[in-house]
Amino acid sequence: MGRKRKVRRQACAVEVTPGGVLRFRFRAKMPDGSPSRFAEATALQDTPANRDRVSRQAELIGAEIRAGQFDYLKWFPHGNRASEFLIATGRKPLVNGRDGAPTVRHYYSEWIGRKVVPLVRASAARDYRAHFGGYVLDVLGDVPLDQLSLAHIEELRHAMRHRERRLSEKTIRNVIDGSFRAMVRDAMEDDVPAAFPFPKVRWPEKIVPGPSPFTEEERDKLLDYFSKKRWKVGGFNETKSHYPYYALLYTLFFTGMRPSEAVAVRIRSVNLKARTVQVERSRHLGEEAAPKTSRARRTVRLTPNSVEVLNPLIRLKAKPDDYLFVNVRGEPVNPANFYDLFRDAQTALEISPLRDLYSAKDTYISHALTNGVGLPWLSDQTGVALTTLLKHYGRFVHSSEVDDLELAKIDGNGRRASRSAR
To answer: Domain containing 335 — which CATH number?
Structure first.
């Protein structure tokens, strides 16, 4: 057999973004000489004429890259990596050929570099990159921040609503009223001239599903399932029980901790004598950061039964920084993977409807309120504000006996009943 011929990739390729805009894709060197991948969107829709025009430009860019004469700022003065080239070369930025506020694309290239763990949560950094790279920059990348208007926001919303692959209203709002709004707000805090039209945008009223707690019977079935289930280990057919999975689910059901909080707990945060767990960090997408809110950083109280369940996890040679809950490979539990196991358990037990791991927290709060636990104590225990508890879980505050007594007063049944008895 002859030698397999190596296929040489095109130096600069043209592709179509999900929004139907033409985009350059190429590999070139950064100012320090290191190779890097680039993706630079144009403002041109995918039409035969525009594709022909952009393809010719791609050939020229490719030729310059191969000849070692590529000037990034000449081609992309407001590109995604412009700030890095400007800093390295000492050149002043051009803002649409004039002095003034930077464009959305130019400020974003600087702003996103600051959105890293632990300054922001890993999920937030991921969403920022996905939202701007997939939607915002394609439509509004070349708009100066100080000229941003309600019309631009509506243009972006229209483009997102009319994509070939339909987006939910929730996703559209997360992009515009979440990520885009956050960037422009930060620009204003950086004293960058920027308009802020977001309060003028009108959104459909949100339909927020209420809490979906398990019944006590369903909860106990799930715990029994995890206590007896044997899990596959590695690539072999060997299976074995894994106590930390049961202990993790028990903790979620009987402390009101969020899954991301529980999987981040270290041995040093657990005091079984004082019956407490300190919530200090949150773990998501393999990264750890401070909890979502200052209220969430708290001391969680344990029942004697919870202490009994957690006690076997404090191993003889455990170190303070060891994770309390680990998977079958001895690694920190990934909440997304544990949810898969949790969902499979519900299916096996024929529990309907299927619920996510946050329903364990719903279960804890709903049963606590039904049994008369005080709201201030429950707020401290769960890290949920009093107003939020009342808004989402208020229906569990009322017992059927109290409701019957109060309703009898309203319709006068008690009075009429006493009169008929005479």
So the answer is: 1.10.443.10
